[in-house]
Design brief:
about 300 residues; alpha/beta; TIM Barrel; 11 helices; about 40% helix
Length: about 300
């Protein structure tokens, strides 16, 4: 029965793609993580989607020593992109102490300047090893929620790092449910972070492609790991997609998927998905949540 269900589901999806894919805004894409789904076929023939890969902290600085381990980086890039001339989209996810010093320190602090130098060295090293990749750094500019956090991005402090990237990719993960803070609070949060990111993008002439996640951020002790309601998620995506500064908009969103083990550890599965094969849940969510955009 599972085989029949998957087949019928795939056929239905393909039919919708063929009929509606021409209506998708060609400038907006969902960037989805390569090898995260049990069946990637539906995504390969649809202009709504693009693939990306991640070079995480374990592949750069696993012991949080604030060093650029050139050999380790090369070894991991060889695994991600065996062809030295490979083209593709690479997100650097490095959340070590240097990342935190970029956030919390300012120009007059040696820790800030050392952190800038480390990220510059990292970007340059990746470009030497895989010159044809398009690269960006996850989480820059920094996500803010409270006013006191605004200094994390002020005074163009991230310009030196972001000017070397091909795209700008802040994290817009939802921190609180609409029921906790109200939908207007989440909408305000998205807009204030989009404003900062697009200002950086416009000034540096870089496309902005933020990260989104269909789960409430795990830092939320009460609701972390809950799957966001479909209509709420579509509302968030609509805000992200349509927000603009003098006509400048985001070019798409990175749809985050963690590791299989990590996702299962934190995900709180709702009743609506309780009968779905656990290995198919991620497939079902991304198709259900992004498919409506084929009609717009």
């Amino acid at each position: 029965m599972k085989i029949v269900f998957v087949f019928l589901f795939s056929v239905e999806f393909f039919l919708s793609v063929n009929v509606y894919s021409q209506k998708v805004d060609a400038k907006f894409h969902f960037y989805i993580r390569k090898d995260s789904y049990s069946d990637e076929t539906p995504f390969k023939n649809n202009d709504l989607y693009r693939f990306y890969r991640v070079l995480g902290q374990n592949g750069i600085d696993p012991l949080n020593q604030n060093i650029v381990n050139k050999q380790l980086i090369k070894n991991n890039l060889d695994k991600l992109y065996p062809d030295k001339n490979a083209a593709g989209i690479l997100s650097i996810d490095l959340e070590n102490d240097a990342f935190k010093n970029l956030q919390r320190k300012n120009f007059n602090d040696n820790k800030f300047n050392d952190a800038v130098d480390q990220f510059v060295q990292l970007i340059n090293e990746i470009r030497m090893i895989r010159p044809n990749l398009k690269i960006g750094i996850y989480g820059l500019p920094f996500r803010t929620y409270y006013t006191y956090q605004n200094y994390w991005n002020n005074n163009h402090k991230l310009d030196k790092v972001l000017s070397l990237c091909d795209f700008i990719s802040p994290s817009l993960y939802i921190l609180f449910t609409d029921k906790e803070k109200g939908s207007s609070a989440n909408e305000k949060y998205l807009r204030q972070n989009l404003q900062v990111a697009l200002e950086y993008g416009k000034r540096l002439n870089k496309p902005v492609i933020p990260f989104i996640w269909y789960m409430i951020n795990p830092g939320n002790k009460l609701h972390g790991g809950e799957i966001i309601e479909k209509q709420d998620m579509l509302n968030y995506i609509s805000i992200i997609r349509n927000y603009n500064i003098d006509g400048t908009k985001v070019k798409g969103v990175f749809w985050w998927e963690g590791s299989e083990k990590g996702t299962k550890k934190i995900m709180k599965i709702p009743r609506s998905l309780s009968n779905v094969d656990s290995n198919k849940i991620k497939d079902k969510i991304i198709i259900d949540y992004t498919r409506p955009l084929l009609y717009h």
